[in-house]
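Good day; I would like, with your permission, to put a structural problem before you. The record follows directly beneath this note:
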Amino acid sequence: MKITAFTNNCGVLIEEIDLANLTDSDFESLQQAFVEHGLLFFRDQSLSPKQHKSLANKFGDIVVNKIFKTLEGFPEIAVVSKEKQQTTNIGGGWHTDHSYDEEPAMASILVARELPSSGGATKFANMYAAYEGLSEGLKSTLSLITAKHSNEHLYGKGGYFSNTDLSDKLAENVQVSSAMHPVIVIHPESHKPVLYVNKAHTIGFDNWHDDEAFALLNFLYEHGSKPEYTCEFDWQPGSVAIWDNRSTWHFANNDYQGEMRTLHRITIKGSSLAGPVCG
C-alpha cells in the first residue's frame, strides 16, 4: 500500500490497494491512515454496492440514511444524485455529515457511479489544521463554548431543500434532528483537538445571542476554508473517498449544469464527542 500526501495539509492518496479484497493487514493499515490523516482518496477501484457495504462494515456500524432516497435493495446506501435538468445539488456548501446527531457520524465512504464530462469535484477542508491556525487566545475561548447543530432548516417541512428542484431526492419520511456539541472536541481516536462547527448545520452557540454567535461563526467558516487548509478531489470512474466527519468539511461543486452526476454514500456510526474541558 502506497500513501502519498494529496496536498500539504489536506488528505492522502492511497494506491496499490484493492478495497474490494482487503486482507486483515490491509485494513489495519487503512484504519491507521484514516485516524492519522482523516481524509483518504483512492483511484481505479471497482466496488459493487455489496462490496461498498462490506467495506463500511469493517469500519463500524452503518448509519441508515433518513434524509435522502436510498439505493434499491441497499437501504444503507444514500444516493447523492443530480439529474440533467436539475440546477440545485446535494452538498453544495461547506458541511460535515450528521453533526446534528447526538452521536455524530464517524466516517463517510463515497463512491463515484455516474460523472459529468467535466466539473463536479468535491472540496475538502482539514479542521485539525484549521484549529492549529487559530490564536491561543481564541482556542481558549472556543474551548468553553457549546454549539447547536440542526438539519431542520435544510430538510424539515418548509426547509431549504423542499423549495428546490431537488425536493424529489428527499426520503418520503425525512427525520430531522438537533444536538449540542463542543466547538472544540478532542478526537476520540487521535486524541487531538479539532474545530467542530460547520456552515450547513451549526445554528448558534449555547447562551449566546444569535448575532454574537454568527459573527464568530462566520469568522471560523472563513478561516476554515482558507486555501492552506483545503484541497479539491476530481472524481474519475473508480474513484472513492473516505473521510472522517469529526475532522473534515466537504463541499460538492455545482459546475456541471445539464449533466448527470451520481455517487453512492455510506455513513458510519460514531460516538458522542467531548471537549477539552470535560474531556
